[in-house]
């Protein structure tokens, strides 16, 4: 496998040569070029499978080189580098079938993964070309068909329910299984850390994860039939035993995987292992495993066997809600978090935790925090709307750690925003800034209150108290000030200016302008022109 590095910056080329372990990536030869002409010469003279190319170069752009590569029908995986997050560049790179689009400055760990993916893609392309040449493309399709079979089975799609019908279905589909084959499903949950690769680049995370899985799930005792993600960060590994099932092998591999996930993927994991079943009974084993996954509270970095799991009969006994309410009202947020953490720890020790208990606890805690914020005139349901809150809410039932993280988010956000609203000048400054930068938008009390998550009536009272002027009158003054500036500095018509400062009705605008300025908009513009200094002759 050969690679070509193209960049007009000598130091970038040198850094790429020295800071990436090319041997580990199966790269045999590294060619370098400092402009498009040199790159073309190398491509004409040497077989190159991967090109890493800068876009902005003085003697021809990287996109021009990529267009030439496509015109000449070279089988090359191209990784484009650029200093600018320009959509037009990205769109053009996609049109020219670039493998990836990477922003400088270079993060070498991330770029290494991208190159690793490109190498795999190039090898796959070479393999396909050989398969097509030899007339054996069906070998590649076989793996795809098997993965599709197992994925559909995991998702519960279009399969007969009875064991006898299922065995007949497998035979009818010409799948390479016998009724007596013993299959083992392993369900893996992943918990990416904050700011890990899984948190900010899911596709690269999945690629690295699959590499780890296929490397570890290897043994002469079984074959890997499929590895598929059936729900975000929930993966199913399907194994087929080649001899009598040996649980010790699987437990050892799962323990190694948990260690590797923490070390290389920056991610906690748990493994839930079903019983080995014959093919005709595997549907029920998978169904039971999925049910376990939905019901149980997940303990990170642990291994569970389905046959050893006993569903706890948990009855929800709430924490001391009165004490928690008092702690919130006293701004004792750290004490609140300690109290809820101790409560969760006791529940876990007493083996009385399940999804239902966590769900009821989440409801009680959220209601306490929302009521606390409402008493301070803060619109909590709007404050917590957004990607972060929604994601933490969904994940909160996964594990004790996730529930603590969600409660921490609720409380820290409440503490931060309560502190903000207790400084009226900060709130008023925020509203004034918003009015002046959005004077052409809808500026009702409701819309302004939404920007600071406050009750509209409370915001109006607070604004009047701090400024001595009502919110409505301040909006009018800000808009008329903006209109004056436009009348003085532009040739826009008065009608256009009225619209720009938020008034669709010209008569209404003219009336308000005269009240504030003492003259009509046209008279104001004329008077400003008359006052302008005469330019020297």
TrEMBL record:
Transmembrane segments: none
SUPFAM superfamilies, sorted: CheY-like, Homeodomain-like
GO molecular function ontology, one term from the record: sequence-specific DNA binding
Species assigned in the record: Paenibacillus apii
Record key words, sorted: DNA-binding, Phosphoprotein, Transcription, Transcription regulation
Phylogenetic placement of the source organism: Bacteria, Bacillati, Bacillota, Bacilli, Bacillales
One GO BP: phosphorelay signal transduction system
Coiled-coil annotated residue ranges, if any: none
Domain Response regulatory: 2-119
Pfam family, one: Response_reg
Protein name from the UniProt record: Response regulator
HTH araC/xylS-type domain residues: 429-527
Source organism superkingdom: Bacteria
4-aspartylphosphate PTM sites in chain numbering: 54
């Amino acid at each position: 496998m050969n690679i070509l590095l193209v960049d007009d910056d000598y130091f970038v080329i040198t850094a790429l040569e020295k800071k990436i372990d090319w041997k580990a990536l199966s790269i045999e030869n590294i060619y370098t070029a400092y402009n498009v002409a040199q790159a073309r010469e190398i491509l004409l003279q040497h077989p190159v499978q991967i090109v890493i190319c800068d876009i902005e170069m003085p003697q021809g752009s990287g996109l021009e080189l990529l267009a030439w590569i496509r015109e000449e029908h070279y089988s090359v995986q191209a990784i484009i580098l650029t200093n600018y997050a320009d959509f037009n560049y990205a769109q053009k790179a996609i049109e020219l079938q670039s493998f990836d689009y990477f922003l400088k400055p270079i993060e070498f760990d991330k770029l290494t993964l991208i190159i690793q993916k490109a190498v795999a893609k190039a090898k796959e392309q070479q393999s396909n070309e050989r398969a097509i040449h030899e007339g054996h493309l069906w070998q590649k399709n076989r793996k795809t068909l098997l993965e599709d079979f197992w994925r559909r089975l995991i998702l519960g799609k279009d399969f007969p329910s009875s064991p006898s019908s299922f065995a007949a279905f497998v035979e009818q589909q010409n799948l390479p299984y016998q009724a007596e084959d013993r299959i083992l499903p392993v369900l893996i949950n992943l918990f990416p850390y904050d700011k890990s690769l899984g948190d900010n680049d899911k596709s690269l995370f999945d690629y690295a994860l699959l590499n780890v899985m296929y490397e570890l799930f290897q043994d002469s005792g079984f074959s890997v039939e499929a590895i598929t993600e059936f729900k975000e960060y929930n993966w199913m590994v399907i194994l087929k035993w080649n001899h009598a099932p040996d649980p010790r092998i699987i437990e050892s591999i799962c323990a190694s995987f948990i260690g590797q996930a923490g070390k290389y993927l920056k991610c906690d994991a748990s493994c839930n292992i079903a019983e080995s079943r014959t093919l005709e009974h595997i549907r029920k084993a998978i169904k039971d495993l999925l049910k376990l996954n939905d019901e149980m509270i997940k303990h990170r970095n642990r291994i569970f066997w389905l046959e050893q799991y006993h569903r706890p009969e948990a009855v929800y006994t709430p924490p001391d809600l009165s004490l928690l309410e008092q702690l919130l009202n006293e701004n004792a947020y750290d004490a609140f978090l300690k109290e809820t953490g101790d409560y969760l720890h006791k529940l876990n020790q007493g083996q009385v935790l399940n999804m239902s208990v966590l769900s009821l606890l989440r409801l009680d805690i959220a209601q306490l925090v929302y009521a606390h914020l409402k008493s301070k005139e803060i619109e909590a349901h709007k404050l917590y709307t957004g990607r972060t809150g929604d994601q933490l809410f969904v994940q909160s039932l996964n594990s004790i750690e996730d529930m603590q993280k969600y409660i921490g988010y609720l409380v820290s956000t409440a503490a931060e925003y309560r502190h903000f609203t207790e400084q009226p000048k900060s709130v008023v400054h925020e509203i004034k800034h918003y009015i002046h930068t959005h004077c052409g938008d809808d500026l009702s009390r409701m819309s302004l209150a939404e920007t600071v998550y406050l009750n509209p009536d409370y915001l109006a009272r607070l604004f009047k108290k701090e400024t001595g002027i009502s919110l409505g009158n301040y909006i009018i003054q800000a808009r008329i000030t903006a209109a004056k500036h436009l009348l003085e500095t532009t040739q826009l018509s008065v009608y256009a200016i009225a619209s720009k400062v938020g008034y669709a009705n010209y008569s209404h605008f003219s009336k308000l302008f005269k009240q504030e300025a003492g003259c009509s908009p046209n008279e104001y513009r004329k008077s400003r022109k008359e006052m302008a200094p005469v330019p020297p002759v």
